[in-house]
Specification:
Radius of gyration: 18 Å
Shape: globular
Helix content: 25-40%
Largest sheet: 8 strands, mixed
Number of strands: 8
Structural class: alpha/beta
Length: about 260
């Protein structure tokens, strides 16, 4: 009996979250978490929990500006060493955005291993910003090249990490941010004190912070004072910025367009 060929897996761009704008002027690509090594098909739940909640929040906030948000459907669940499959899939997705929508700014938003993918793929010419939430990063190894940061030049970069994260080491994201800041002043990092990997304790604040960042980098809305201060502060202050409890509740309404950059 002839052996059946293994089907070729292809990366896909998920359907736009919410109603897709008639005229798209900015795109968020949502990159779910994954495993260090796995050639299995990603579980559906990876793309339907935190990233979809975040995508709905950003879509509502940017609807009037022409924002489209898509979840990237990976080929494999794992990063898989030098293959860096999740980063390759993120780059393909950015290419697909250009094909579909033309010359519009793209913000990569990644969680866990998707955060690493967002940082690694940040050099794509369509990408103007990267948000990495609790990013998984490799341990420092003197025998291996450090995680690259040069590709982040010219992009706005924000990292958000819980200080009690038991899955991804927050010190590793601080060290990467420190290296990136030397080559790119537009890097900041927020620490969510006492929160763990899922950032459930301060979920509302993290979602508000993500909205503040995405609307600023994609549509020129003025950043809130804490975000503007984080970008402006020299290291380590701007890389260990505490995310205040209640962040977002006291911010002025930003429902109308504001084209003023900080």
């Amino acid at each position: 009996m002839a052996q059946q060929a293994t089907p070729v897996r292809r990366v896909r761009l998920g359907r736009a979250i919410g109603p897709e704008p008639t005229a798209v002027s900015g795109v968020v690509l949502l990159l779910p978490g994954g495993d260090e090594v796995s050639h299995r098909k990603p579980a559906a739940l990876l793309a339907t929990s935190y990233v979809r909640t975040l995508g709905r929040r950003l879509t509502r906030a940017g609807r009037g500006e022409g924002l489209a948000s898509h979840v990237v459907r990976y080929r494999y669940r794992g990063w898989n060493g030098p293959a860096a499959n999740l980063a390759s899939d993120a780059l393909w997705a950015a290419d697909e955005v250009v094909r579909r929508y033309g010359d519009v700014p793209v913000c990569l938003v990644g969680i866990d291993m998707g955060g690493r993918a967002a940082l690694r793929a940040g050099g794509h010419e369509a990408v103007n910003s990267v948000l990495a939430i609790a990013p998984w990063l490799p341990e420092d190894d003197v025998a291996a090249e450090p995680e690259p940061v040069k590709q982040l030049g010219g992009r706005r970069v924000m990292i958000v990490h819980g200080t009690n994260d038991e899955r991804t080491d927050p010190e590793l994201s601080f060290r990467l941010a420190e290296r990136a800041k030397k080559a790119n002043r537009d890097v900041c990092r927020f620490e969510v004190h006492s929160d763990r990997h899922g950032l459930h304790q301060h979920r509302d604040e993290v979602l508000a912070l993500a909205e503040d960042f995405a609307m600023g980098v994609l549509f020129g809305r003025a950043f809130s004072r804490p975000v503007a201060d984080a970008f402006a502060a020299p290291p380590p202050l701007g890389l260990r910025m505490p995310l205040a409890a209640g962040f977002g509740k006291s911010l002025r309404s930003r429902s109308g367009p504001n084209r003023t950059r900080p």
